[in-house]
Amino acid sequence: MKVAVISTDAILRKRMAGAIADAGFKTLTASDLAGFTAILISAAPDVIVVDWRLTEAVMQKLRSAPRQSYVIATQAQWSAEDITAAYARGVHDFVKHSATNAELIGRVTGYRRMEAWARATTASSNDLTSVDLSRIRAWRELAAIVGTDLGEMFGLSFAPTSVDSYNVAFASKIALTLATDRVEVQLAIGIDSAAAVHIGQTLIGDTSTEALADALREMANTAGGAMKRAALLEGLTFTLGLPENDGQFSSHETRHHMRTPDGLSIVVATTVRSIAPKTISAEALREGMVIARDLKNTGGILLAAAGTYLTSSTAERLSRIAGPSRLVEISVAAAA
């Protein structure tokens, strides 16, 4: 857990930061708003302990940040009026300058207690990080759904089949992301050498490696689109990425083999990964990133919804409109 201590009082700042660091938490300090802004961009602290006099400016900064922090205001003495005003500003807790180290740490760890309470009270059946994807028809019937769309693409009829072995020679993959549920599905299409010859000679009229790669990327895009549309009928909005060559096909977790009556055999493979949010500045946005939390301007107008897949032009536009130093939360796939 990262804790920022923001105070113009160097002695108080050092004492509080030292006590928090001794409790085992990563501690960052700043003496003014500029220093706090730098911390917000580089570290996205979980907890902020801040001078009462700086809370209004700090809360204003946090309102435009994609990731919220637990804020504890501090001053020498607290009146009932001050406490009421602190809560009105959005402060979560307060502590006196003279608080013991034990009380200070108790206030700081209130963030974890609140987080645990929120998880317990907001868990739902839509949390795909804890519920198996098998509850979704689009996942249970993936092979049939993808087979239908690929069949229409080539004017063929694919049917599920079983094989003893299948040596993939060419493969392409595409990512489908549920940013709000922190889930990513990698969907890949693989073909062996015989299928490559069949597709090249019979279906696209070009057996070059470049033509086959293009055809496979289009197949992955078609398969991803099929799953996205099927999931949408169940109220789940996947963001579809861009297809790319897949050099690690063997690492995928599940496989579905399909064959046409004339012998064209392909395999559809999938891997499900958890994705963790990461906070970056708007100027660091790049093609291929996925917005993890609704991005709004200071007036509350939506600039990009959670789940938005960024193209190079979209990334550039958001950086320009939101401002290069604006913080944005994106989804980052964890290692498989």
Largest sheet: 9 strands, antiparallel
Strand portion: 25-35%
The helix/strand class is alpha+beta
Radius of gyration: 26 Å
Q: Please give the count of helices.
A: 11
The residue ranges in which pLDDT falls below 50 over 5 or more consecutive positions are 121-131
Q: Which shape, going by the Cα principal axes? A: elongated
How many beta-strand segments?
Answer: 16
First-residue to last-residue Cα separation? 24 Å
Q: What are the secondary-structure elements, in order, as H or E?
A: EHEHEHEHEHHHHEEEHHEEEEEEEHE
DSSP helix fraction:
25-40%
In short:
38% of the residues lie in helices and 26% in strands.
Overview features:
alpha+beta; five-stranded parallel sheet
Task: Give structural notes.
The protein has 336 residues and is an alpha+beta fold. 38% of the residues lie in helices and 26% in strands. The protein contains eleven helices and 16 strands. Strands 6, 7, 8, 9, 10, 11, 12, 13 and 16 form a nine-stranded antiparallel sheet that branches. Strands 2-1-3-4-5 form a five-stranded parallel sheet, with helices on both faces. Strands 14-15 form a two-stranded antiparallel ribbon. Helix 3 links the parallel strand 3 and strand 4. Helix 2 packs parallel to helix 3 and helix 8 crosses helix 10. It is elongated, with a radius of gyration of 26 Å. 35% of the residues are buried. About 3% of the residues have low confidence.
